[in-house]
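Is iron/sulfur cluster placement plausible here? Inputs below.
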Amino acid sequence: MEFCQIQLNYLDWNFQDAKGKVELLKEWKLPVWVMEPLRGGRLAKLTDDQEAKLLALRPEEKIPAWAFRFLQTIPEVTVVLSGMSDFSQLTENLHTFETEEPLKEQETEALLKIADGLLGGTLPCTACHYCVSHCSQGLEIPKLIALYNEHCFTGGGFLAPMALSAEPQEKQPGACVGCRSCEAVCPQGIKISEAMADFAEKLKG
Ligand code: SF4
Ligand code: SF4
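Reply from A.M.:
I modeled the complex. Tokens:
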């Protein structure tokens, strides 16, 4: 392999463990090509309050540019692929990439705090795996919760159904029998059985 293309942006840094993927690719000495730098345009527009926080740090920087500056902070990134729908977006992005202006520590912290705010409604699973050995159905709970979070955040995107289409029925959220033995050991107090039931229902469309 000469490079690896992954979904990478400041929202997915922790949410979809893009950070862990970058660390692995660094270990393998593979350059990172980025897709979804703006998360389907979600990071191009923030709330007034969030935008004000960023403007206070860099008054000249446009909001979409913050996502690109975040990527400029990661040395392993060599290519950024961003979809653009009009000429003004193209000129704005060219302007951003005319200079390398990686984020300072304080700026990265502010951006990751905004990411936390955007993910407010998702389940706080840390993928500790404590629950997995307690599941009589052998479900890969943290993986299912990560997909559930993705599915809820995107309001029912294609990623979770696509990922689950490769899994047998007995590994799907619908295989959960609601015994709740996983919940007894979850340090985050996540109502896993409810999430699985809701996920199964959402997947029916
Ligand atoms: S509630 Fe569902 S996910 Fe949790 S242990 Fe029981 S079958 Fe497994
Ligand atoms: S125990 Fe809770 S936090 Fe840990 S992996 Fe399972 S659901 Fe996630």
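Short version: The radius of gyration is 19 Å.
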